[in-house]
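Quick one: structure for this chain?
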Amino acid sequence: MVSMTIEESTVAQSVSADDVNSTVARDSAADDTANGEQVESANRTSDESAGRPALYGRKVLSFVRRSARLDARLQRAWDTYAAQYLLNINAGEGSLDVRDGLQIDAAFVRDVWGNDHPLIVEIGSGQGENVVAAAVAHPDMNFLALEVYDPGVAHTLLLAGKQGLTNIRIAQVNAPELFKVCAPGVLTEVWTFFPDPWPKMKHHKRRIVQPQLAGDVRRALADGGVWRIATDIEDYALHVHEVMDKCAGFANAGTRTVSLPVEHVGKGNADTAVELPHADFVESERFAGRVLTNFEKKGLAAGRVIHDFTYRAV
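Got it. Here's what it folds into:
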């Protein structure tokens, strides 16, 4: 597959936020943190009673699976468009793992999308505003949205279906599991915009940007491809630098210098970050291909700084 990237050009088409009426992961970090504590505490108690190390043999997930009821409109969208857009690649009903034997390669792309266009994957597509707007603006590219929460999946189905898009698909799977089955060089770009920050120190291990995933993303990216990341949480920005700036096979393609604390803070002591020693880091200008969603607007209104990253596969 020929390596191509979306240039820093503004997406002309934007998606209306009128359809947004369901809560998804990035709008409920506090709920996820509380649920994560409950699950982790229960698992730790069980392990201790059995004489095993805490979280023995369990995957550390970047999300907490919650039940979510779809309203009538989103249920109709699911019933109408799931067969067209939702990939059937899961290991089984209710599973977020990919099925055995699956490989995301050039043949898979041709079979699903019917062409050899470059493939871009968004991790945690939320309500789908970004990925759908990009699919509208770039009909010569293929897009795969990864989202685990039913309302977000349904809303993305609704947006894509209303516009009759043919170059987008959705997978309701755990993102790290999917990247493990990607063939080398099959992807052109990977996007991770405003992932769950998991603000408590003991939950930082749940953040989606981790060395293992970075290695799998690099293998999946064609040479010259990019992983674009954005966050409005300063401590997460430091986390991204720690993982990605030293990751073999990636080069930080940023052009602007920012000052960040060099020590981590958690939910309870985040206000102390300003007093910590700081250092300069290299980041990117805002990715013009990312539409300004309500989520990002809320962060800006709250006075948070948006940190954009572009890591190029070398």
